[in-house]
Amino acid sequence: MTDKWPILSTLTFLPLFGALLILQIKGNSKKARYDIRNIAFLTTFFVFILSLIILADFNVELAGFQMEDKIDWFGNGISYHMGIDGISVLFVVLCAFLMPFCILASWETIKEQLKEYMIAFLILETMIIGVFCALNAFLFYVFFEGSLIPIFIIIGVWGGKGRVYASLKFFLYTLLGSLLMLIAIMAMYWQARTLDIPALLNHTFPPHMQTWLFLAFLASFAVKIPMWPVHTWLPDAHVEAPTAGSVILAGVLLKLGGYGLLRFSLPMFPLASAEFTPLIFVFSSVAILYASFVAFVQTDIKKLIAYSSIAHMGYVTMGIFSANMQGVEGAVFQMLSHGIISGALFLCVGVIYDRMHTREIVAFGGLVNNMPKYASVFLVCTIANIGLPGTSGFLGEFLTLIGVFRVKSWVAVIATTGVILSATYALYLCRRVIFGALDKEKLQDILDLSLREKFILYPMVVLIVFFGIYPSPILDVVRCTVEALVRNYHEIVLI
To answer: Could you tell me which of 394, 406, 408, 420 has the C-alpha nearest to residue 334?
Structure first.
């Protein structure tokens, strides 16, 4: 079915069509706002359905790219080329899954400039899906940089009091790294005479060139992940972003860096990747320990979860550069799992912020008494974030640690201490916010989850538990692609 029409291009640009429909709506009447919300939600919902159709038609037995669309663009190796493999197809589904919930989370909270807000989110969805589907390095760069603009606007316009500082910091950090990646892409073109990713995967770059190309790409991807010490933009961005902005930032945008390492760094520059693996392990270990300790002293719930994300991305970079089946599969699973778990946690924070207009931990206590449904959801998401067996957070960390242990046992030991630290600050947060006596007067009349909030949070809880018990649907899709990536890497490195 999907071979007969350009389904990936349809999927990628369908949100732009929804944005154009919203653009036609005039005025700010109640009906206009109702239409804007409905168009945005229905567009993202249809994108999600289309992503499930693509996943259903995806052949998990093939390691190569599938459902390709290719049109000559500028010639000379620069083309419009789209396609997916076992890794990218799951990230496409993750993005398409989270976007309708982002729209619903903004249903009642965004009152000013609603049209522009929804258009920004739809453009962002196009850019993110484009990154995961692009099979030309130039096209990848266009989408990769394009995703920076709408999230910069979302934080800068609809964020909190420090939104201007946070958005500018985010913009400058990511732009600087991306400029180095652009120079590297130009150098790759001069050397290989093409920017087609399948062709570049079969091209062998000289060892000395691989070193510089690897560092240039790492400068961009490390900021996106974010890797220590270029992580400082993330807590500020999360704290100031609106709830939906935090969800898509933690759920999908952070994964662009990990995906880039799997698409470019490891397969195209294997010699340089092997050379810099010890450095990556050191940075990842520091990120896990540093972020965990800093998270423990946070007073803002959002900032605590943001530092938790930095620690979890440390496991991802470790797993990727372990360059074995368990490590890479664990890294991919961890990214997908973290996308759902962190998204759910930020949505949980948004629920109580909408009621209390504060995110300070000391402002809450004993919510289980008046909000039992909310408390149950928050508890499941928190223990999943720790990596408790039976939740999706466990398997990603477990596979990653096994993969790293096979390469450097001391790195795995350090990473394991990070699991203990994460349990410490996460359980402290739960005890402080959820349990205890309801001793604050302003919390006496706080309402439990509304129907809309249940519709947003319950599916995420189901997936967290389902993939924790039965991870095969994810691992079966990625296995062939990861096997080919690891095999090709070792064939070059061991020569």
So the answer is: 394
What's the pLDDT tens digit per position in 326-375? Answer: 999 999 999 999 999 999 999 988 888 888 888 888 778 778 888 889 88
Distance CA 193, CA 263 (A): 19
CA dihedral of residues 114, 115, 118, 119 (deg, nearest 10): -150
| Contact call for residues 224 and 260 (beta carbons, < 8 A) | yes
d(CA 217, CA 343): 27
Contact 377, 461 (CB under 8 A): yes
Helix (H) or strand (E) holding 136: none
Mean pLDDT within 425-435: 85
Here the tokens at position 97 are 């899954």
Sign of the torsion formed by the C-alpha atoms of 362, 366, 371 and 376: positive
Q: How far is CA 30 from CA 34, 111, 115, in A?
A: 6, 11, 12
Range from 48-62, 204-218, 221-235 carrying the lowest mean pLDDT: 221-235
In 3D space, the residue among 175, 165, 119, 166 whose CA is nearest the CA of residue 144 turns out to be 175
Whole-structure pTM value: 0.90
Q: Say if CB 468 and CB 395 are below 8 A apart.
A: yes
CB 225 within 8 A of CB 260: no
For residue 164 the two structure tokens come to: 């201007």
Q: Tell me if 273 sits within 8 A of 211, measured CB to CB.
A: no
Q: How confident is the model at residue 2 (pLDDT cuts 50, 70, 90)?
A: very low
Grouping H, G, I as helix, E, B as strand and the rest as coil, residue 147 is coil
Q: Which residues contact 38 (CB under 8 A, 6 or more apart)?
A: none
Q: Where does the pLDDT of residue 234 fall: very low under 50, low under 70, confident under 90, or very high at 90 and above? A: confident
